[in-house]
């Protein structure tokens, strides 16, 4: 996740940061989505979307 700089959350959660990074899991290529609250170090959203 550190390969991509975070941006403010597009859904408007105050203070939340989002990263979208390409990667693989179980031999599937896709994109990871991560939204965190850096003040509390809480993960608000985590998703892997595979390419089809």
UniProtKB/TrEMBL annotation:
Region annotated Disordered, chain positions: 1-30
Official protein name in the record: Uncharacterized protein
Record lineage: Bacteria, Bacillati, Actinomycetota, Actinomycetes, Bifidobacteriales
């Amino acid at each position: 996740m550190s390969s991509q700089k975070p941006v403010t959350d597009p859904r408007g959660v105050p203070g939340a940061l989002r990263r979208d990074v390409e990667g693989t899991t179980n031999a599937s290529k896709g994109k990871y989505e991560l939204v965190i609250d850096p003040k509390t170090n809480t993960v608000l959203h985590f998703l892997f979307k595979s390419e089809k």
